[in-house]
Amino acid sequence: MRFLLIVILSLSCVSVIGQTLTNVRLADHTSYIIELLQRTVDIAQKYNWSKLKLDDIVMNIDEEVMNKTVRGTVEFTNGFVVSMQSMDLIQSTVQQAWLYDRNTNITRLELRSTLRMQDVAIGYDVIAKMDHDEFHNTGVIVHPLIHFPITLIRDLFTDELSSTGSTTLFTHRNGVKFVPENTVTQIISVLFQWNSTFSSFNRWATEIFAPTVLELAKTEHKIPIFCYDCPIV
Fold this sequence. Notes:
By secondary structure, the protein is of the alpha+beta class. The chain has a single domain, classed as Bactericidal permeability-increasing protein, domain 1 (Super Roll), CATH 3.15.10.50. 24% of the residues lie in helices and 46% in strands. Strands 4, 5, 6, 7, 8, 9, 10 and 11 form an eight-stranded antiparallel beta sheet that branches. A hairpin with a 5-residue loop joins β8 and β9. α2 packs across α4. The chain is elongated and about 75 Å long. The N terminus is likely disordered.
């Protein structure tokens, strides 16, 4: 039975007991993934993004600015999502993939999709200790576009489910906007690395979005049935 299952799932067209089976797929996987990811977004929004935590960032500065050496430490703490234009599913990324690994003799189904965040404003409490002075400010940086590829995986021998998540942070030139502004904050804004928040965003993918998708697939939103010899939807 296991061998027969491998043959069926690994080929697009096979013959079984005199019949030809084609297009072995999930029934309407597109609608399933759309509903699954929309539910994931709803859960993330439920607490106004408060579950999306950000790591603290520390900058050590030793730079020549306007013929003057500037040394100090800047701490970005208590990071949070100030606002977000939108979070949605990129429907063109929805796909199902049937993969057979000859080395492990494992066949798996992967349901792939990508979540998209647009104009994500991240706020921090900022403490700058520069040349024996200490400055307290609020800083906000806006990331125009972040993608979160999410994959739900099903082992077709054991029916075990798992999930993966990753992050694509797109390059931009937005600096940190400070309140209040002064000469020190202008220096910090120039020196701040736009991708310093990447590790936090990637943690959202691996520790929040992917696990949420997995939990939903195990409980209230289970994977649909297989469809044999059916049209592609």
